[in-house]
Design brief:
elongated, 186 residues, mainly alpha, 0% strand
């Protein structure tokens, strides 16, 4: 979850971590609890990552990158689609015949988002911000991920200020639920 480094290094490490989890899903031969646990782990990581980006990365992109507002809006739309898929997966049994299709949809959506960030957004941010600004953003991202919710909340506000106010409370509820159910141990 917290990898260290500037914001770009931190988020790219998250991307590689989720890609590795997706590879583990693709290598699985069955379903059941092992698949459910891995889907839960992926959900936790994607939600934490998204919340941190929404609180700090996208506002920085809006502020520092020319045309950053449109870019940030597009990334937020991507997050919305991923959250809906995660919510759908959360409700599905692992032996549901549609599980494979929905997992593939999630992997495609996340891969497209990652490619866009790494090929477009991150290089533009690196050019627009000083190394100190990128390091500071990395610290903020790590703190936000530590406090972020662990479940998708598609109806939650997506504005940075509302997320900063509401996400920590949602995170406490999620962490309490994770502790009681034994989920989210990573």
């Amino acid at each position: 979850m917290g990898h260290g480094g500037n914001v770009i290094e931190e988020l790219m490490a998250d991307h590689r971590e989720v890609e590795e989890m997706f590879a583990r899903i693709q290598a699985m031969t069955g379903s059941g609890q092992q698949l459910r646990d891995l889907i839960d782990e992926i959900t936790i990581e994607l939600v934490r990552h998204s919340v941190a980006e929404e609180q700090y990365l996208y506002p920085a992109v809006r502020e520092h990158v020319e045309g950053g507002g449109l870019m940030a809006d597009k990334e937020l739309e991507d997050h919305g689609r991923v959250e809906k898929i995660l919510k759908q997966l959360e409700k599905m049994d692992t032996d549901d015949t549609k599980m494979s299709t929905v997992l593939h949809q999630l992997m495609q959506e996340v891969a497209s988002h990652v490619q866009d960030e790494e090929n477009n957004l991150f290089p533009m941010l690196r050019r627009a911000c000083s190394p100190e600004q990128l390091d500071d953003l990395g610290d903020k991202i790590r703190r936000a991920k530590a406090m972020a919710p662990t479940r998708p909340h598609p109806s939650a506000p997506s504005t940075p200020m509302a997320s900063k106010l509401l996400a920590p409370g949602a995170g406490l509820v999620d962490r309490a639920r994770d502790f009681v159910t034994g989920r989210g141990k990573s």
